[in-house]
Amino acid sequence: MEFLRPVSLGEALEMKAARPEAVPIAGGTDVMVELNFDHRRPAALLDLTRVAELAEWSRDDSVVTFGAALPYTRLINELGTDLPGLAIASRTVGSPQIRNRGTVGGNLGAASPAGDTHPVLLASDAVVEVASARGTRSIPASEFYLGVKRNALEPDELITSIRLPKATGPQQFAKVGTRNAMVIAVCSFAISLHPNESRAGAAIGSAAPTPRRVRQAEDFLTEVLDWESPQALPDSAKRRFGELVASAAEPIDDVRGSAAYRKHALAVLARRALGWAWDAYREGERSCA
Amino acid sequence: MTPQRSAYTRRTVLKSTAAATAVTHLTSAPAIADDGGTSEITLSVNGQRHRVAVEPRVTLLDALRERLGLTGTKKGCDRGECGACTVLVDGERIKSCLTLAVMRQGAEITTVEGLARGEELHPVQEAFIRRDAFQCGACTPGQIMSAVACINEGHTGSEAEIREWMSGNLCRCAAYQNIVAAVADAAKETPR
Amino acid sequence: MIIGKPLDRVDGPAKVTGAAKYAADQHIPGLTHAVLVTSAIARGKIIRIDTGQAARSPGVLSVITHHNGPRFAYQPPKHPWIYGQTHVPLQNDVIYHSGQIVAVVIADTLERARYAATLIQIDYAVETPEISVEANLDKAFIPERGPFNLRYEYRRGDAHGALATAPVRVSGRYRTSMQHHNPMEPTATTAVWDGDHLTLYETTQALAFTRQKTAEMLGVDQKQVRVVSPYLGGGFGAKGYVWPHTFITAAIARSLGRPVKLVLTRAQSYTMHGHRAETVQELSVGATRDGTITAFVHSAVSQTSMLNEVSWEEMDATTQLYACPNAELTRRVVRLNLGTPTPMRAPLSVGGYALESIMDELSHATGVNPLELRLRNYSTHNPENPSQPWGTGKFLRDCYELGAKLFDWPHRLPRPRSTRRDGGWIGVGMATAFHPTYVSAATVSIRMDADGKALVRSATQDIGTGTYTIVTQTVADALGVPAKSVRFELGDTNFAPSAPSIGSRTAASVGTAAHHAGSALKDKVIAIAVADHRSPLYGIPAAQVTAADGQLFHRLDPRRRETYADVLRRHGPVDSEAVWPAAPGISRSYGAVFAEVTVDDATGEVRVTRLVGAFDIGRVLNAKTARSQAIGGMIWGLGTALTEHTIVDEHLGRILTANLSGYLVPVEADVPDVDIAFVDKADPAASDIGAKGVGELASNGATAAIANAVCHATGRRVRDLPITPDKLL
Asked: Which stretch is the leader sequence (chain C) (predicted)?
């Protein structure tokens, strides 16, 4: 095994072009587990911790762009106001020690259906910026996840940054786990209200081969939500929303929970998260008025 | 009975060293080839610099324990799931099983051996003894390093906050409520 | 008196600074590293094993398979008491369970050994494994009692007849899961040979077991084996008996001529040293309408392995806890392609969960408050031997009283599913904790030097329970010196043979020997002083001299005094040794546990909001460490109730949760503050110092109390542990 240590993004991309089999490592929270037990022994490791630009972020009036190797802890502390949904999801990742090192780039690279940030990225219309020595590409999150632990990256590409619109409305993330901390999601749900577009984004995790948007449920919200003069949502609407979210899931039985339980819990999470988000929106509208 | 090829077989591990040489010249920091051989790195631990010969695949945890003889840091799972190996790197708590030693050159690493000043224990160490915040002691070094960081981070505002921010460290003896009490005690004594 | 005081742990400074050296922490020059390769299949044969590539891998010193495996001087018998299992790996090609050792790689570094282990190629002939208890119930059988004299059948009166005619009958089918101990410290063995003498740095709850059985396997005299374990990072049963990895490592080190260290990975710890067996239990209780119990019929089936027939899950609480004239207990086992089970803190809690659940069901059926129901069936005499009073060793009434007061247990319980708070259903539940008192022979030696400091030694263990501290306190009191004048060393078979740390017996056993050794040493020094004309105590009858705070003095004229150091400076060091043969009277430990839970009935998530335990552990030796142990035991029960289960692939027989993210032990954020009370009355029948066990007792009760609280909150009786959210929907 070879250990490659680029100090700039350009250098990293050249190395990845020369050695496409090189496995990128930044936080190490996914890759190291496989290395420690020789479940995976890549010919080369590409250490991205010295590539400063991958851990930076920038923002303008409407968009936040952050490097793929920005640790969760910094994301929460420095970008939490602009990206509340992502901050909530990041707070539920692993443990404080993991959050000090783990990154959204790593979550995307691993593309596990249970990754905590995926539903938020989907619900918030994130774009994954990837690069290779050949050039750069922007991949919408909704096109990024291809299968269980498979993503749209080409072998010579690296994830460089993630671009998200600043939140224009309330965002929520919720997950069910058998423990109160350090827990892999049994299932998870994210919702982002986009009042400027009079619509909401919603997505599920740990409930299908890939994290996925729940378009029918989103469309339902477009129909029932009155953004101009927001009213309290009837329970029937929340319940219907929950059913639509659950119906989009294709979960499996595994050690963390049964498929039936996942569907049930997703409906509950969706119902509640919608309630919290919509109430916050109504509250915001009232206080603005 | 049917013959079946073992899933244990792994053929993906064979390496190509030819390509390695080709890449090396690109790097300003030289690539470290792992031909089963080792390279010398410098680790700064508890204020002391150590030259140590390791293969790239050696974790910071194994470097500390097996190469530097700093066995205070414990290995509980080697997967980042228990927190026994928690150390501070540049003041931040991380799990030393989830980082390679070669990635931490130039960083200031603090382990449980580096907290006391001679016979004088760190306030967190004292509080752990006073509050009986451990039984078998296997998770204790990790708990203590996590507690030091938790206090520095300012996550000690309430019992519930301590519980949440100390949840990255398992304790099978379940000294949990005593750990919360110890962290709260030490937080009062530690100037931030 | 220092005994009973909440003295800080004397091993505290070593543990909080990282100075404490555990089994895997020893620095040994020339050390090599062993890595195990384990079977990928659960049943069948190895038809080819190719080690060529591994053997040529850099740094590799040796690759061991069944072709060249160590051959041993002994074969553990069918009932392998203190061996963990009968099966010795690496002797032939047969696979009995997934995760069985099939090869060992030794290399100069851990990384190189681990890598080379992945290069070994194995072809198997696979057979369909038997994995399910439920699917094999018809094959269940009653095993022989074996050398541990486990009880599989018991009858008194006419239980079936009494049940058939009982005005109130409640029956339940309870399931408990396979569980793993998961001490935070992984199991480790470091074997160092010097000529024909072996030193083993071992994670063991029983130095003597390791020494005896390793010697037996290797065909050497016990005197040639030294076992060292000054600190143990928890065990909970997993490190109690002697398992193959230990003597395999020792044998390889001998043939290699190099020291070898083996540390099991977390995953390997799921198949190398036992587990708590899964059980299916049918339990029926018959009672009068006022809740007076007339019959128990309890029938249990638990898993065992292909080569061993054993069930550690004793269910004596059913026949010994409550007054009841008719009782029947039958325990059977089924053979599965899984490892051999072993005791896990605490074997009795598995049957105790069923018993205390059915008590709650009986309470619902009769309308008698759960606490009142238990008092109504209180036994003052041993129900198995009605002429034998429990006597002064039973303070369960005090436990009920203390616990109920601390918890504020309601006299009238609200109906199930009637109390809501913050969107969740609230429920309370209680249970009785019950555990036998075990003791073992123990020896403690003391040398007091001219400086008046006592060096105490015993070949026992501190698995986290506080042995270092309580023995220090006990000896200090016996001698009449301050605790700081006593230094206790343990964890080395070079010291006097002593008690194993299994079955909650260390404190009572070693503590008693320590007390006698201390008293004997005091008597010796007094005898020397009163016979020495240079002593102020010269000529005083020895019986009139006593000691306190390091000073010997005349009871009737305390001005006549001198220090231990004064005597010993003139006379030289004094030694004493005491053996406690461990012949106790009948004794049990008791407790009452109370729990409150909140259940989110939309997601099924359960949160324990309050937990109270009141325990009769005899005399409390250290209020601080005893409390910690009791809290830990109750959280152990919480894990069993809500989160812990080992899940096995039903086709492949592989453990799917062999890590700490799939097997969920409670974390900091899962647990409430636990309130503990102790009766703190000495039980002279248990041990001469009046102490009984704590750790296992305290892990009994909480599981059922929480399960009962969940039922009270939701109206739903889950009879299948753990109570995961899906079971509440």
From this structure: none
Residue C698 to residues C313, C435, C615, C636, Cα–Cα distance (Å): 16, 9, 7, 9
Cβ neighbours for A249, distance < 8 A, ≥ 6 positions apart: A187, A204, A207, A208, A262, A263, A266
One-letter amino acid at C658 equals A
Using a CB–CB cutoff of 8 Å, tell me whether C12 touches chain B: yes
Domain region containing C40: 23-128+183-265
Number of domains within chain B: 2
φ, ψ dihedrals at C634, nearest 5°: -70, -35
Beta-carbon contacts of C138 under 8 Å, excluding residues fewer than 6 positions away, are none
Supply the range of the domain harboring residue B64. Answer: 43-85+95-113
The string of pLDDT tens digits covering residues C557-609 is: 999 999 999 999 999 999 999 999 987 667 899 999 999 999 998 999 999 99
ipTM score of complex? 0.97
Q: Tell me the two tokens of residue A189.
A: 């749900």
Number of domains in chain C: 3
CATH of the domain at C389: 3.30.365.10
CATH architecture observed for domain A2-165:
2-Layer Sandwich (3.30)
Q: Does one domain contain both C81 and C116? A: yes
Q: Check whether residue C616 and residue C681 sit in a common domain.
A: yes
Task: Report CB contact under 8 Å: C726, A258.
Answer: yes
The sign of the dihedral angle between the CA atoms of C398, C402, C403, C409 is positive
Please report all neighbours of B, defined by 3+ CB atom pairs within 8 A: A, C
Determine the average pLDDT of the residues in A46-70.
Answer: 97
Retrieve residue C388's tokens.
Answer: 């034998």
Looking at residue C686, what is its pLDDT? 86
Catalytic residues of C: 696
Instruction: For C641-692, write each residue's pLDDT tens digit.
Output: 999 999 999 999 999 999 999 999 999 999 999 999 999 999 888 888 999 9
Check: CB of residue C100 under 8 Å from CB of residue C91: no
Same domain, C592 and C664: yes
Same domain (yes/no): C541, C622: no
Distance from CA of B143 to the nearest CA of C (A): 10
Measured CA to CA in angstroms, residue A116 lies from A182, A204, A248, B159, C667 at distances of 12, 10, 18, 26, 19
Verdict on whether the full-model pTM lies above 0.90: yes
The residue extents of the domains of chain A are 2-165, 171-288
Q: Is C706 found in the same domain as C589?
A: yes
Q: What chain B residue is nearest to A77 in terms of C-alpha separation?
A: B153
Question: Which residue did the predictor score with more confidence, A104 or B9?
Answer: A104
Domain boundary among C265, C283, C298: C265
Report percent pLDDT > 70 for chain A. 99
Name the residue among B28, B103, B168 with its Cβ closest to that of A96. B168
Tokens matching residue A138: 């922007």
- Where residue C464 falls (left for φ over 0; alpha for ψ -120 to 50; beta otherwise) is left
Helix (H) or strand (E) holding C473: helix C467-479
The secondary structure of residue C128, as a DSSP letter, is P
- Measured between CB atoms, does A25 come within 8 Å of chain B? yes
Residue of B nearest to A184 (CA): B81
Residues C538, C501 share a domain: yes
3-state class of C227 per DSSP? strand
Residue B34 within a domain:
no
Which of B32 and B69 is assigned the larger pLDDT? B69
What percentage of chain C's residues is helix, strand, coil (to nearest 5)? Answer: 30, 25, 45
CB contact (8 A) between residue A100 and residue B32: no
**Residue C296 near residue C326, CB atoms below 8 Å:** yes
- Residue C1 lies inside a defined structural domain of this protein: no
Cα C184 from Cα B85, distance rounded (Å) = 11
Mutation choice for A interface testing from C661, C665, C671, C729 by most A CBs within 10 A = C661
Annotation: CATH topology of A171-288:
Enolase-like; domain 1 (3.30.390)
